[in-house]
Specification:
By secondary structure, the chain is mainly alpha-helical. The protein has a single domain, classed as Winged helix-like DNA-binding domain superfamily/Winged helix DNA-binding domain (Arc Repressor Mutant, subunit A, Orthogonal Bundle), CATH 1.10.10.10. It is 55% helix and 6% strand. It has a two-stranded antiparallel sheet with strand order 1-2.
């Protein structure tokens, strides 16, 4: 799955905030939870509309993009 399949951005959904595809859960919410020390499992339990594959895929793509930038 490509990142585009994990994340959607549309002016009709939360004013264009990037959200997990098929949900209204902002990607930033996952990052906020992880920054606060929450486990991925805790986030997924709190937001059951987000699939584990989406969250992990997004994090993998974000890490790859960051590493590509600094390389």
């Amino acid at each position: 799955m490509r990142q585009a399949a994990f994340v959607t951005r549309s002016p009709e959904i939360l004013g264009g905030t990037p959200v997990f595809t098929g949900t209204r859960v902002p990607v930033q919410t996952l990052l906020d939870h992880l920054e606060a020390g929450d486990r991925l499992a805790d986030f997924l339990e709190s937001f059951p509309s987000v699939k584990r594959e989406q969250a992990v895929g997004f994090l993998e793509e974000a890490a790859k993009a960051l590493l590509d930038r600094v390389a």
